[in-house]
Design a protein that fits this description.
The chain has 12 helices and 2 strands, in the order H-E-E-H-H-H-H-H-H-H-H-H-H-H. With 304 residues, it is mostly helical.
Length: 304
């Protein structure tokens, strides 16, 4: 039998406890390294680039030129505002379409649930660029979609809303918003499905026993319980849609340019790196502020 001295802990137990203290840090190390190399370092590099002056021939020098931000925002605020409006419109559309779809898959699809979930994510099996180009065929002037809008008079409603300027759907704000909604719909459906699938249907029976009608049951029971999925889905849809430039470039015109398209042009064609970096930071800061306010207003601060 080992001699145990009162007040003295075994060395082995102390070593195990010491290793146990560092275990969370060891597990976090790969993720922290990844974030540092591919997010923190590029962010600081972009911040430095936004405060430089010069040109591509003579090089850029860090001069702490904060005026670049004011000049960039003053020159491109219409594209910036347009991006937020288009992204917000696409987010609302995906929510209106995705919520009933997620509810049906979660509680009404039966043995076809897995197949429907596969169909939701099936567009991801195709390249983003190809999916967007397909909308050029869908919205062509001689296609059935445009013909339906003309025959039913819906084209005049779109003209009144300012989503189209003629009797054509392609190369218009309507086409850009439609492309955004289609491409980012799975980002809305999957979080909603996850939230609704965990919903206990006995809550609905209890609401019925308390004489709640369908609308009150949805608004007082289903909607609050699904709010985490709503917040997650809207964020996953709005954030990438606000910075997207493929849809506006392929489905829009010169009057539908989004801020992502401007940043792309400044980086790759104009070669004005400070302006492009400043616009990127303005977009990132605006999205962070909007997300913070939105999550706080939704009452789900734990999601951020």
């Amino acid at each position: 039998m080992a001699l145990v001295v009162p007040g003295v802990r075994p060395v082995k137990r102390r070593a195990v406890r010491r290793w146990g203290t560092f275990t969370p840090l060891i597990l976090l190390a790969p993720a922290m390294l990844w974030l540092t190399v591919f997010f923190v370092v590029p962010t600081f590099s972009l911040a430095s680039q936004s405060l430089q002056t010069g040109d591509i021939d003579n090089g850029f020098v860090l001069t702490w030129h904060f005026q670049t931000y004011a000049e960039a925002l003053g020159r491109y605020w219409p594209q910036f505002l347009r991006s937020l409006i288009y992204a917000g419109s696409a987010t609302v559309i995906t929510l209106l379409v995705g919520y009933p779809l997620a509810w049906f898959i979660a509680h009404r699809s039966g043995r076809f649930k897995t197949m429907l979930l596969v169909l939701v994510i099936a567009p991801f099996f195709t390249n983003f660029l190809i999916r967007t180009l397909a909308w050029q065929i869908i919205l062509t002037d001689t296609g059935p979609v445009t013909g339906f809008f003309r025959a039913t008079g819906l084209i005049h409603v779109l003209q009144w809303l300012g989503l189209v300027t003629s009797d054509a759907l392609l190369y218009s704000p309507f086409a850009v918003i439609s492309g955004l909604a289609y491409n980012f719909l799975p980002f809305m459906v999957l979080p909603l499905y996850t939230s609704l699938e965990r919903l206990d249907l006995r809550y609905l029976d209890a609401a019925g026993d308390l004489y709640a009608n369908g609308w009150n049951t949805f608004w007082k029971v289903i909607w609050p319980l699904s709010l985490p999925g709503v917040v997650s889905g809207t964020l996953l849809t709005f954030i990438p849609a606000a910075g997207d430039y493929i849809n506006s470039k392929l489905l829009g015109n010169t009057q539908t340019v989004m801020i992502g398209q401007v940043i792309d042009a400044q980086f790759l064609r104009v070669l004005d790196y400070p302006t492009a970096a400043a616009l990127s930071f303005i977009l990132m800061a605006t999205i962070i502020v909007m997300v913070g306010l939105y999550v706080r207003a939704a009452g789900t601060e734990e999601l951020v």
